[in-house]
Amino acid sequence: MTLGDDSEVERDSLFRYEEPIFAREELLDIRHIPGPDRIVGRDTHMQRVANALNPAIFGRPPKHLLIYGKTGTGKSLVSRHVTQRLATEAAKDSVIVRTAFVDCGEENTETSAVKTIAAQLNDPEETGITIPERGLSTGDYYKRLWTILDSRSDVVVILLDEIDMLEDDEILRKLSRAGENSRIERCSIGVIGISNKIDYPDQLTERVKSSFQHDEIVFKPYAADQLSEILNNRKDAFREGILGDDVIPLTSALAAQEHGDARKAIDILRNAGRIATEEENPEVTVEHVRKAKERTEADRFNEIIAGTPVQGKAILLALALLTLMSDESEFSTKRVYDTYTTIVNEIGMDRLSERRVNEILQEQAFLNVINSTRTSRGRGRGVYSKHRLLEDATIVKKVITSDDRFEVYEEIGV
Ligand SMILES: Nc1ncnc2c1ncn2[C@@H]1O[C@H](COP(=O)(O)OP(=O)(O)OP(=O)(O)O)[C@@H](O)[C@H]1O
Ligand SMILES: [Mg+2]
Questions:
Q1: Which residues carry a binding-site annotation?
Q2: Annotated binding site for ATP
Q3: Domains and CATH numbers, the chain
Q4: How far is the CA of 246 from the centre of ligand 1 (A)?
Q5: What residues does the AAA+ ATPase domain cover (predicted)?
Q6: Residues 124-147 pLDDT 10s
Q7: I need a surface site. Which of 30, 59, 172, 398 has the fewest CB within 10 A?
Q8: How confident is the model at residue 37, as a pLDDT?
């Protein structure tokens, strides 16, 4: 029996058996790795990555690489794609190339990064080596890694994604020196570091600068026509004839305005489809795209502030309301504190001290959301701070007031 086919069975209308809009929604999933024919406008970048890795097909050491570029410019995609093709190509001449992938945003210490690399490149049945979650010193994880490398690979390419999130650059030094120090004998290592920060090499210590000789590649933001092509290549995520003519051009134009971010373009297109589905509309229209843009931004901001305590949200809301209700964009701690006080009094929350509020505003967790600057009042009269939202105040307010506790502010400042 095919599900949903059986007219005898009474169906609960709460659930949907047919996807009216999407044919293959997974093509718009951010984790989906598109095949070579769906990668657009990055031929020269792929070629340069391939050139650096080329020696690996002969089992020789590849060049190290640093790849920079803003978010959503295809850095992770191109690196993964080229290393996959490299492994396939090398295997044709019985050269074993393996790849390890570390998300340094998650594994941000030297120990957890080396542990992840060792675990990914290992096969306990083949090597007899295990990589326990804990209990080994960093040095011991390295020792096991060197043995694993020599026993089963000719070349390994280690992708350190979001490399600037690593606490220090010790791992770069060890990986780039492993061959010289005869830690490994057979296997060669190539490192690809990926970062949004163009000034990342300035952070490297002198010791690493000298041992980690590398090429650099910059990924520029996509232009609107490239984004259009990327989206057109995934059009089959939708049922035929469902997308309005202007949907892809508008989505591309909106994403191009904001740093040419392909991830954002794909997210907006997917959300447009979801909104059309929710509205039970037979077509995806430009109106859905506009709503989808707002939803995409709200989703992202939501992710950034997920886990922020309620006091932090009250402070952000204060700053958003001030921004919406005045012509200014920067506010002193005193003004933020006054508005914050009104909010917490109105909704019956505890009130923190002005000092504590100022501290929260300066905290690490708020760095992506708020920019705070300290200004001198003049000689001997101390300093004061000013705070500015980096996110669109409308979005900030929308997300925070979706929390029931702050709902009463939904209509304020519109
Ligand atoms: N040239 C392209 N062709 C097709 N799809 C692309 C292209 N570039 C990026 N994408 C898609 O856009 C999304 C973001 O790309 P990717 O993850 O490679 O960006 P990134 O530069 O690594 O961003 P971040 O710095 O945020 O990690 C992915 O889903 C990817 O499949
Ligand atoms: Mg990436």
A1: 73-77, 222, 234
A2: 73-77, 222, 234
A3: 45-219 (3.40.50.300), 222-304 (1.10.8.60), 307-409 (1.10.10.10)
A4: 23
A5: 61-234
A6: 999 999 999 999 999 999 999 999
A7: 30
A8: 83
